């Protein structure tokens, strides 16, 4: 059985042909050209679907789409997605059905990372897990008893906006001091720059103070690998704040398996070990049993696999 998974981004539209047992068997990518409006972008999605569909040996059961923005409870409509101008409210299912003949279901992209990990990745042997996507911002997804938890209206798991310091810095949230303000890529770098300025002889200052926009977490982890104590300190502080957030997630949900993905997570144990230590220090004793913090090696493929999985689970009986 085959499905098509779509990762709708502001820059590129990625699609994958998903085999229910084998995972990704073919991929395609086209530019989004988001500034040209919803109809044009929907045509581009249909183009990518057809490119992928041409590689199939049987007709896919349907399309699963990971999208930013607010997703309707029935998974048909996207509202006000960032980086997609003009998308006030778009019924993606109707629009793609007209263009491709296939039914489509849409879900928050971070939720699909969680679903993809649960079905094909680090979480496939787990009944319940919390996924944290540590990228430009911080997103999340929750799997409970092998099912995606969506909340009362479908908007659950905005885990990046959980407050860990109500007087803390701002991020993409009305509330200050959310975990995203410490571990989201742009905010981690923003917080690091004042400390880097205090060490003008450090490699990080020499290479990036004149071009701070070029500094990314991967550069910090490389410097940490080379023994740069300043880089270690910066990543450790970000990891510590992540650990505090994890304490809140576990105490609320009683889910002990935390999986991280995204560009910031590629810093690996430079962030994850301080996060584990901070969480273990503050978790109530009953919650320590079974606590695990791990990295999802599938990367962005997890979102495509999650999108394909959603199509299998919701559309296979519609054929």
Describe the structure.
This protein has two domains: 132 residues, Nucleotidyltransferase, domain 5, CATH 3.30.420.40; 171 residues, ATPase, nucleotide binding domain (Nucleotidyltransferase, domain 5, 2-Layer Sandwich), CATH 3.30.420.40. Helices cover 40% and strands 21% of the residues. Strands 3-2-1-4-8 form a five-stranded mixed β-sheet, sandwiched between helices. Strands 11-10-9-12-13 form a five-stranded mixed β-sheet, sandwiched between helices. Strands 5-6-7 form a three-stranded antiparallel β-sheet. Strand 2 and strand 3 form a beta hairpin. The radius of gyration is 20 Å and the shape is globular.
What keyword list fits this structure?
13 strands; Nucleotidyltransferase, domain 5; 5-stranded mixed sheet; alpha/beta; 319 residues
Q: What is the 3D shape?
A: globular
Task: Briefly note the structural class of the backbone.
Answer: alpha/beta
For the largest beta sheet, what order do the strands appear in spatially?
3-2-1-4-8
| Biggest sheet layout | 5 strands, mixed
Organism: Natronogracilivirga saccharolytica
Family: Belongs to the ROK (NagC/XylR) family.
Protein name: ROK family protein
């Amino acid at each position: 059985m085959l499905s098509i998974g779509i990762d709708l981004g502001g820059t590129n539209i990625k699609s994958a042909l998903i085999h229910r047992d084998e995972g990704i068997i073919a991929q395609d990518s086209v530019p989004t050209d988001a500034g040209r409006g919803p109809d044009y972008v929907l045509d581009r999605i249909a183009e990518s679907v057809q490119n992928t569909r041409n590689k199939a040996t049987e007709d896919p059961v349907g399309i699963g789409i990971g999208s930013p923005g607010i997703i309707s409870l029935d998974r048909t409509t996207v509202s006000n997605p960032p980086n997609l101008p003009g998308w006030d409210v778009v019924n993606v299912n109707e629009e793609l059905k007209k263009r491709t003949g296939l039914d489509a279901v849409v879900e928050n992209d971070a939720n699909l990372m969680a679903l993809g990990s649960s079905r094909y990745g680090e979480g496939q042997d787990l009944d319940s897990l919390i996924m944290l996507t540590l990228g430009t911002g911080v997103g999340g997804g929750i799997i409970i008893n092998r099912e995606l938890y969506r909340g009362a209206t479908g908007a659950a798991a905005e885990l990046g906006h959980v407050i860990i310091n109500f007087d803390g810095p701002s991020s993409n949230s009305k509330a200050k001091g959310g975990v995203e303000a410490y571990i989201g890529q742009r905010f981690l770098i923003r917080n690091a720059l004042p400390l880097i300025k205090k060490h003008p002889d450090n490699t990080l200052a020499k290479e990036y103070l004149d071009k701070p926009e070029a500094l990314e977490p991967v550069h910090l982890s490389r410097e940490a690998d080379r023994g740069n104590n300043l880089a270690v300190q910066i990543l450790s502080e970000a990891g510590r704040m992540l650990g505090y957030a994890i304490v809140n997630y576990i105490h609320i949900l009683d889910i002990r398996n935390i999986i991280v993905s995204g560009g910031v997570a590629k810093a690996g144990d430079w962030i994850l070990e301080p996060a584990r230590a901070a969480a273990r220090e503050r978790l109530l004793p009953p919650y320590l049993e079974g606590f695990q913090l791990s990295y999802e090696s599938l990367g962005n493929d997890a979102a495509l696999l999650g999108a394909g999985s959603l199509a299998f689970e919701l559309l296979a009986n519609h054929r």
